[in-house]
Amino acid sequence: MNSRDRILAVLDHRLPDRVPLGELWIDPGVAGAILPGGDWNDLAVALDLDVVTAHTMIYAEDEVEWVDREKRIFRDKWGALQISQHDGVPVPAKPPPIEGPEDLRSYRPPDPAASPVIGKIRRLKEKFPNGEKAICCVGESGWAPAVYLRGGLENLLLDFGLRPDFVRELLKIGTEYYCDLFPRVIAAGADVVLLGDDYSDKKGPMISPRQFAELVLPCDAAVVASIKRAGARVIKHTDGDIRKILDMLVGAGVDCLGPLEPVPGMELAPILARYPGRIAVMGNLSIDLLSRGSPDDIVRETKRTLAEVSAVGPHIMSSANTIASWVKPENFLAMVRTTQEFGHYPIQVDRLFP
């Protein structure tokens, strides 16, 4: 199997020849420490990972309108202010471009056809034309754009409580944009779309399951349907404890859940058991362990994950979120090399723990 075959087998709920490896994001500093001068996709090639990525929510320096370079404040494609953190997804800033219904009526969204991610995916397809890597567009649904347009999560959560009809219209902006954009990136060569909106914290969903079902789920279902019609698969990531909305997310048609935050109740093996033949999982090595632990700790945890999750499968090995700037490069390498050594099917559990 090549990398594309391997990933698509997992997302079609079948076991491949070996456990595939992929990351939502690898911090440039970590990538450079392992492969000097290389970016995250160069590192994916060098380490024989199975996924390369292009992101809709991480911007190059020339893709935004800089408001204050010294403070790293820019205006994004939505017209919203964000602060670049140098190590992944930027964070929204105030004031928001949409305060109320009048702003909503006059707002004009960006043109999906003009998105630079289309060209990025096309270039990845030119580089890997025959499935040498699975090509993944990391994006969003309706939730994250609403967070940007409201200047932060706290404003949006207040809107859910005080003016849900306003939220319903606000969520349509990102939903309609991505229902248009994702078929374009799939036509350009993407095999997979990973949706990265975060719906929960460690205690549970940030809104009630009823509001999730009424306001958010229809957006996710529409975006997932647009991706499936265009011929790609869908991975859904979210942080936090999502048990109260798990059935809804699986019912929306996603092919895989992950990476998921390793909080109590969100273990991957029980999720596979709960939805046999319906869902794959991705993850789930703790970022804290990858940052604070030793390579020996990572080897043990990777073997445990291979035994408890991969052996049951279908499973994509990865961190529980991203390879952030504080992850030790040697620990990331330990996860990758252990998976490559012991992750061939059928997985021999007795070889993992002799």
Short structural summary:
The chain has one domain: TIM Barrel (Alpha-Beta Barrel).
Low-confidence stretches: none
CATH topology: TIM Barrel
| Helix-strand topology string | HHHEEEEEHHEHHHEEEHEHEHEHHEHH
Highest-level CATH class: Alpha Beta
Based on helices, strands and strand pairing, what is the structural class? alpha/beta
Instruction: Provide a count of the helices.
Output: 15
> What's the number of extended β-strand segments?
13
Question: What's the rounded overall pLDDT mean?
Answer: 96
> What percentage of the residues does DSSP assign to strands (E)?
5-15%
Structure description:
- With 354 residues, the chain is α/β, with parallel strands linked by helices.
- It has one domain (3-352): TIM Barrel (Alpha-Beta Barrel).
- It is built from 15 helices and 13 strands.
- The protein has helices at 3-11, 28-34, 40-46, 101-106, 116-127, 143-149, 153-162, 164-188, 209-229, 246-251, 268-274, 287-292, 295-310, 329-342, 349-352; strands at residues 51-55, 65-68, 73-75, 81-83, 91-92, 134-139, 192-195, 200-201, 204-205, 233-238, 256-260, 280-282, 315-316.
- Strands 1-6-7-10-11-12-13 form a seven-stranded parallel sheet. Strands 2-3-4-5 form a four-stranded antiparallel sheet. The chain has a two-stranded antiparallel sheet with strand order 8-9.
- Helix 6 (143-149) crosses helix 8 (164-188), helix 8 (164-188) runs parallel beside helix 9 (209-229) and helix 13 (295-310) packs parallel to helix 14.
- The longest helix is centred in the middle third of the chain and has 25 residues, at 164-188.
- The radius of gyration is 20 Å and the shape is globular.
- It starts with a helix and ends with a helix.
- The model has no long low-confidence stretch (mean pLDDT 96).
